[in-house]
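Hi everyone, sorry if this is the wrong subforum. Our group has a chain we'd like a structural model of before ordering constructs, and none of us has done structure prediction before. Sequence below.
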Amino acid sequence: MLDDKCPKGHQRSWKCHKPPRGCNKCEAEALRAQKEAQKALRRQEKRAREEQEHIEHMAKLDTMVAEERQRLKDAQLFRDRAAAVHQKEKDLADAQAMTVPSLAPLPNAQNGVGGSAGKEPDPMPTQASPTPSNNPGTQPPDSANSPIPKWTDRRQSPAKEEWERQKTMENARNDAIDSVMDMIGLEEVKLQILQIKAKIEVSIRQNADMSSDRLNVSFLGNPGTGKTTVARLYARILASLGALPCSTFVETTGARLAHDGVAGAKKIVEDVLGTGGGTIFLDEAYQLTEEHSQSSGRQVLDFLLAEMENNVGKIVFILAGYNKNMEKFFEHNPGLTSRVPYTLPFADYQDDELLWILQQRIEKRYNGKMRIEGGKDGLYMRIVVKRLGRGRGRPGFGNARALETTYSKIAARQAVRLTRERKEGLRPDDFYLYKTDLVGPDPSKAILKCSAWDELQKMIGLGTVKESLKAMIDRISVNYQRELNEKAPIEISLNRVFLGSPGTGKTSVAKLYGQILADLGILSNGEVIVKSPADFMGKFIGHSEANAKAILASAMGKVLIIDEAYMLYTSTAGGGSTTDSFKTAIVDTIVAEVQSVPGEDRCVLLLGYEDKMVEMFQNVNPGLSRRFAIENAFRFEDFTNEELLKILNLKLKSQDLEATDEGKAVVIEVLSRGRNRPNFGNAGEVENQLGLAKGRHQLRQCAKKPSERPSDIVFEPQDFDPDYDRGAHASTNLDKLFEDVVGCEDIIAKLGGYQQIAQGMKANGLDARGMIPTNFLFKGPPGTGKTTTARKVGQIYYDLGFLAEVEVVECSASDLIGQFIGQTGPKTRVQLDKALGKVLFIDEAYRLAEGHFATEAINELVDQLTKPKYMDKLLVILAGYAQEINKLISINPGLSSRFPEEITFKNMSPIQCLQILERAIRKQNIQTPALTDPKSQIHGKMVGLIEEFITLPSWGNARDMKTLGNTLVGFAFKANASSPGALAVSEDDVFHLTKAMLKERQERCANLPTALPLRTVQRAADQSQAPPPPPPPTEGSSTQADETTGPSNGSPQPTEHQDTDAASDDVESKGKISVPQEPNVTRDGGVSDATWAQLQADIAATKAEPKISDEAFGDQQDVASTAWETAHQAELAFQRLQEQKARDEADAQQLKHRQEEARIERENARRKREKAKADLERMRIRQIAQKREKAVQDKLRSMGVCVQGFQWIKQAGGYRCAGGSHFIGNERLGV
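Answer:
Right subforum, don't worry. Here is the predicted structure as tokens:
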């Protein structure tokens, strides 16, 4: 036996003397596979056969449907041909009737059939339609099976009753009048037509000449009221009554005539006259006087005016248009009203009339087969026409035309429903209108299936907007139920105002808002159109209104977004507004076109920042507030940090990026600081930070080797903020920040305390805002470092995360105070806006305490600093002299509470001044003597000179030291210009240059315009003057000391300032130091008596002279500075009053100049008025003469004297034809 395996691995065996057998298992599997394949083949053949049978069956049904439709078309064609033949027969009968002269209409001259075969296509037939047959098995019978009553059964028509009386009693026959009477509504039109008919018939019975009767008429009304249909019937009525020789009817429009010009209008008139006469129907006639038609339209109208008069009895003109537009049309020429004596007003259809028209539309379109849920007079049909009827009375209300649009929406909803049901395998009835087809879906249920609503709910943040939109949808649902109960719906305006910062999703939500309204059936389209105010602006006067109307018209059924809508109003930085006629015209057009009433198929959204939008609404057309209720606006709040983090994660995920947790925390901190900036970008700011992080990450990766650069991008903290760990080195940074400032230990301690508070609260997860002050008072004399400290404080607050930038916005009181009433507040707000997220440093703030406008600035500042827009979002520093700042704080009690912290800057001591001077010189790499070393000779000299500087009224502390330093640096470079290398200044150079500067400053003070401030300061200086420290006991030193010290002014005298005297006395009492008694000394030999006596007197004087301590000297120094500041401010106040007086005088001169200009302008206007009046009178006289001349010319032509038809020329005593052979005197003409 031999064993083996088949190719599939099955075991098999056979005897050696026989060939190997096949594998039984493989053969069985092959047999099973063959059977399965045969079964599959049979199933496939069966499916193919069934599919072929289905296709053949469907083809057979399609053939049957096509044959049935063709049969219906053939029947309709037969009816149309019969109607055409009947119409031709009627035209022939009318023509034959007009050839028979008669003084009265024959009873059978106008007979006609009252059916619809001989009528013009009429959108409002009133014949009873056949009752639709039920479709068994689809819907139960409803009220649609009841016969529809005739219109006359619904409402009594006096005009039709009168016509029926004439037909019954007088055997009157006129199928055109029958058609007019069968139309729905139009009661006034029908009465007017009967009056015109009666006038014509009376004239015929009187055998009166009707060739001079003007039968021109104007049709006034909204679209869709049947003006064109009535015009055709009116022409037929006049022709059948014999008022016109022929029934020719030519239809045109005002725009077409304006385009074709006078030549086109002349051809139309000639064509009508060529047929014997007829009617010219001019639809939308007002287009001849529109601005866009320029002068061509008016020229055509002037031509037609003459033709109306020249062709009386031959041509009747029918002018149609909207009421408001036609008013301007008739104002073009006063003679237009007399040439068009009849006016037929076409009123808007009432709800019951619209319902009847809708029923007839459905009846005619579906040949009576369409059935309606609730019946054709049922609740849902009434809701349809009531919704449409809410637009009644507005210009442009579409009436029957709008009803057609409404029914198109109904048919579209039905088509969507039928398609969906057929897709689901149902067998819907194509000839049944459900409730949802007619009135739309229930909003409370439709919103659950609205994808736009679901997308809105998934958006991050927007809690306030979502709640507002949900409340609005709830009101829409309530209105839906009220309509079902046949109650008036609550008025809801779709037009909304979206208020919020950029990047908060206003545009995205607006698009979803439009789609939601479309899904709820509120809007027919739901498409979103985004425009800006620039899209509305025109190039010339009147163009902006046209642009606005075109944009609003194109937005019907859609959502129109006007982004940055506040740009429709122009305001100035000073608080006033400028009149922009273009923007004003746009706003006025929006107010006129947007009504915000129920049923308005349009949604207009105004987007913008809240403060600017509120300002616009307060200053433009008040009607805008009624159309767009800003108090019910959708407010888009700035995103919180948690929401910004979600947005960040979403953007990282969408871009396949990553960031560490520390990096995310840093970017949120950066975004939090950015909130303080105006117009924070929210989601847009997140995208900006990602862009910056990408750039920094790329730079960081470039520093690595290509092999070490990972493919995945993971942002680190330094990618979002290179100095992200500044808070960990806050104390070190603080010391380093103030290392170049002298005498700032108290400031460093106070700011260090703020840093510790912020760090502690941050460690506990709390926000330090509100705990750390953001408003400061900087008190002190000039040059003590107030501005420098403000910049450093800004850096500290930026590190704390309170500010978005380190920038310091410096301004003075003049930048806050306005020049006229109402300007100060806006100017103050402008400065606050500029400083948002920064430091606002108001120097010389004490000037805000002077004058009414300055007080207004303080009040505005106090008010604005407590508002959310500015509170804790900027650092405000008021700087100035201590006494004046205290006075400023007393003006407004709220100012003290809003500026709780103050930093006092004192006058610098001579030692501190020398430190500043030495640093300023060495900063330029110049060697200086040891100015700050008390043991050096130059130190004592410089201290003496600086003490003299301090006594000057113009002392500027560090500012003067830096000025002196620049002088010394300049001297060093000038002296060593030819020998570059190490630079130095000697002690003598420093001393002499300092003394020269002191002398210059003393001369300035000696030449002050008023003596009082200088005298007071000098007296204080005398009291506080102290001798310099004694130099080493050398002869040269003694000489220099004598030169530096100067003479004494003696003891101080009493002054008129009691507080200064008291301070001086206190200084003396505290400044006396006990002088040790000299031991007994022996008189040296050789000393004369006179010399010894003088020496003893000098010793006694020295003991009697009081010694001043450093503390007493500093106190008196402050007293002297305060006294000078007081006198200086008094001088400044006096100068400002002088300047104000000069400005007042200049204003008076300017006012006088303006008055003279106004007088001249008034005189010029009066002269122009008189000239215009005289010109008008001359034109009136010429017009009368022209009319008289025209009448003479008409009479001459009617006399037929000149057979050649030449023009008649006026001569002395009469008229002669242009050919010269005929003359008629004035007596014969009666002129």
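For your construct planning: The two ends are 152 Å apart (CA to CA). The chain has a mean pLDDT of 79.
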